[in-house]
């Protein structure tokens, strides 16, 4: 099994916190994993890891960056910048937040870079899909194992699909997003909460909505609709929904009302939002069961691209 698949380990409370304790300072990712190097190491500004530091991406920029803003402090600072290519969506590993995963929604690859003592390492290709990868998110499965999930979507062209990366290097169809459930269009953005509920956002369209798929029943319900702005990448943190509006603002959704959380006047297409800190097992999102597509229901299993040694 490729060393890269160590991300798919049993995520008990000890495993999640143990990852961070075992690796207080990561060595270069080339020494930890195998993969395809597509960038070069970058210097980085290291902010405090807490819920007051928000991270976000601007899909329009190339080379793309993941920015951070400390609420009440520094704002709009680049945390990681690629050598070339855009960043649409990203996710920090919940047990080892030094690991940053990201995608360019107009490519079929999932990338990884890791923070080292000298900055971020060269990018690695974690997985190559058969079509564009739109979004990514980490979550625990029913057995408590940590997986990386990703989506494919064509807007209003056809139903979308969320996949789960398995420990053997394959990707299994996990949940089919029916356009009839999400207003006729889905750009691929999704998130999980700690109760196993799945959240879907409309993407770059107006009106835009956030939908919740209830774990267990699979019932799809509308959480919020915005008639003035798009709703792009989102995350559920501590029971609250944060989302990017494909413009300059990140919103916090509270009791059905959007509240300005952070605005970066220098950005154009804010496409995703996230937080970066080591999580306990109780804080890690969970993927539920939704009575739609279960792992193994479909015979198609995508295989991870071979990584050179």
Descriptive report:
The protein has 309 residues and is mainly beta. The chain has one domain (3-298): Neuraminidase (6 Propeller). Helix content is 5%, strand content 38%. The chain is built from two helices and 22 strands. It has helices at residues 13-22, 29-32; strands at residues 53-58, 65-70, 77-81, 89-92, 99-103, 109-116, 119-120, 124-128, 136-140, 146-152, 160-165, 170-177, 190-192, 198-201, 208-213, 220-226, 234-237, 240-244, 249-254, 257-263, 270-274, 302-303. The strands form five sheets. Strands 4, 5, 6, 7 and 8 form a five-stranded antiparallel sheet that branches. Strands 9-10-11-12-22 form a five-stranded antiparallel sheet, with no helix packed on it. The longest helix has 10 residues, at 13-22. The radius of gyration is 18 Å and the shape is globular. The model is unreliable at 1-43 and 294-309 (pLDDT under 50).
List keywords for this structure.
309 residues, mainly beta, Neuraminidase, 5-stranded antiparallel β-sheet, 2 helices, 22 strands, globular, disordered N terminus
Nearest-integer average pLDDT: 82
By CATH, the topology is Neuraminidase
Poorly predicted parts: 1-43, 294-309
The end-to-end span amounts to 12 Å
Proportion of helical residues = under 10%
Percent strand: 35-45%
Number of domains: 1
Number of helices in the DSSP assignment: 2
Q: What's the CATH architecture?
A: 6 Propeller
Overall geometry comes to globular
- Count the beta strands: 22
Which radius of gyration do the C-alpha atoms yield?
18 Å
Major sheet, described briefly? 5 strands, antiparallel
What structural category characterises the helix and strand content?
mainly beta
- H/E element order: HHEEEEEEEEEEEEEEEEEEEEEE
CATH class: Mainly Beta
